[in-house]
Amino acid sequence: MCAAALVVLLSNVAVAFSAVDTKNLVIKALPKEIEANLGVLNPNTFTVSGISAGACMAVQFQYAWSTIVKGAGIIASAPYQCSGGSLEGAELCLNAPELESASSLYTGLEINAAAGTIDPLSNVANQTIFLFSGVYDTVVPQTNMDNVYSMLEMAHASRVTKFFNYSAEHAWITDKYGNSCSSLGSPYINNCGLDFAHVFLKQAFHDMNQMWNDTMAPLLTNNFYTFDQTQFGASSSISMANTGYMYVPEQCKSATAKCHLHLNWHGCTQDANSLGMEYVLFTELNEWAESNNIVILYPQATANILQDNPNACFDWWGFVDSNYATKDGTQVDIFRQMITKFGGF
Ligand SMILES: *[C@@H]1O[C@H](CO)[C@@H](O)[C@H](O)[C@H]1NC(C)=O
Ligand SMILES: *[C@@H]1O[C@H](CO)[C@@H](O)[C@H](O)[C@H]1NC(C)=O
Ligand SMILES: *[C@@H]1O[C@H](CO)[C@@H](O)[C@H](O)[C@H]1NC(C)=O
């Protein structure tokens, strides 16, 4: 879910099967001995992904830190700085995307790059970018993603793949988990017969000249851990939870393998306070991460009524600070610190 005003959307569609007892799942804190083996991950294979408000954050981050982001999987984002830094602006992006101008939003990117508040736009050319926009997305209508795409073209992005052709509503897209593809409702994970995590990561690894193991591992619930987000400055006053989650593949628990790093941002109402572990578990990212030695960070937003953010969205309309879309953004800076701490770059 992208914006604050969209709380009321509910669904009668039942969530599909799950072999995992999410209610009784206990996630342990990251043990010190495993943490000691992190911080040495591959700096040349860092990728990000997100859905909805989390996709807006992924787009912000992919431009702000394009020197380190080698690939981005973006599902249902508004274009960069579309909100103009206000809730009214954010709602306008969602309700009247035909009023957006990709070229003037691109000028905003150029201004930020010239000021050095985001990395040079030239890095975007070599990023592997997968865009997904459901034909039936009623929350972030497809025009938004047309503009996300146009702006990437303006940045001469040469490795962009568009999935704008599925009969999908607004959701993270999977091959076997969640609501039916064209339905709208919590947990906003839809089974569209497309393993988005797989197609994106496989292509990104190919483009990064990395080996790819195309055997999907089972979901190993023992490999999820919590980590302390407050060490990076997270608190409810900036709409970030005290606790984040991470997936550490078996091989990456010891220092023997050269492991990779991926960062995924959930959408509004998909944080652990709202959904428990459902989003963290079922994006289908973890099974591919296991086969391919990718550590995944799942930072957590939290609701803050005073910031007009009752749905635990990440900041894409400036409710924390006006620098929200740049390296100076409070939340963006926290993610950057997480990468330094757990990735080492
Ligand atoms: C949908 O788009 C993807 C990505 O461009 C493409 O690979 C696929 O063949 C398309 N599917 C259909 C049914 O057109
Ligand atoms: C693009 O990325 C590939 C794989 O990481 C790398 O080998 C190549 O040098 C990059 N090209 C440019 C122009 O940066
Ligand atoms: C590929 O991944 C599967 C599932 O995790 C694993 O069983 C297998 O050993 C892996 N193959 C290689 C060559 O690493």
In short:
Helices cover about 25% and strands about 15% of the residues.
Relative strand content: 5-15%
Q: How is the largest sheet built, in terms of strand order?
A: 1-9-10-12-11-2-3-4-5
Please provide the count of β strands.
Answer: 12
Indicate the percent of residues in helices: 25-40%
What is the number of helices?
10
The SS-based structural class is alpha/beta
User: Bound small molecules, which ones?
Assistant: 2-acetamido-2-deoxy-beta-D-glucopyranose
How big is the Rg? 18 Å
Number of domain units: 1
Average of per-residue pLDDT values: 94
Please tell me what the overall shape is. Answer: globular
In angstroms, what separates the terminal alpha carbons?
A: 31 Å
Order of helices and strands: EHEHEHHEHEEEEHEEEHHHEH
Largest sheet: 9 strands, mixed
Uncertain regions spanning at least 5 consecutive residues: 3-17
Protein name: Polyhydroxybutyrate depolymerase
Keywords: Signal
Organism: Bodo saltans (Flagellated protozoan)
